[in-house]
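Contributing new records

If you add data, match the layout below exactly. Sequence lines come first and carry their own label; structure lines follow with theirs. Keep one chain per record. Anything else will be rejected by the validation script.
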Amino acid sequence: MELIRFAQRNHNLLLRALSEHVQLVLIALVLSILLAGLLTIVSMFFTRVGMVLTYLFSIVYSIPSIALFALMIPVPGMGLGRNTAITVLVLYNQFILLRNFITGLNGVDGAIVEAATGMGMTRAQLIFKVRVPLSLKPLFVGMRLALISTIAIAIIAAFIGAGGIGLLVTIGLETGNNNRILWGVILSAGMGIITNAVLVFIEKKIR
């Protein structure tokens, strides 16, 4: 009951935290997809570049998120705040997206690719007119995994002043307010579970 009363008294606080978190996640995801899409196109033209990029981003992905946030703060133009948080989230997403995008595009039936090549299609046409339409499901899986990962990691971004749901948890820990901590957990878990369920449903509709 105390948890409900806290929500009734502080509904604006909870809604603001959720709104900030959604904005942070969406901005990071859009930028992540744009960058990963560009890098994937380059990788399809230059296979070795794709291997190197995937390896480098796998190293970034293996770094604990709180450590990467801390490493980015001294970088010129970064510091505390949302810009650093978005940069780190975009970097983290590249391994998930790039790996799934490249695997998906390369997973198209070789016979179809050969037939399209025989029709005189250029490499760019093969990518956009053949490979992408036939690999929508793995591409979507990559975006779903990146989104769920971003929702989770963005919680930690509150420690560098990026706001969002994580701020409820950090302030709750500092002040010993269990209601703040619990609502932070409830909102973050609920956001992740609902988002994943919706995306899995959409994913099943993709042929």
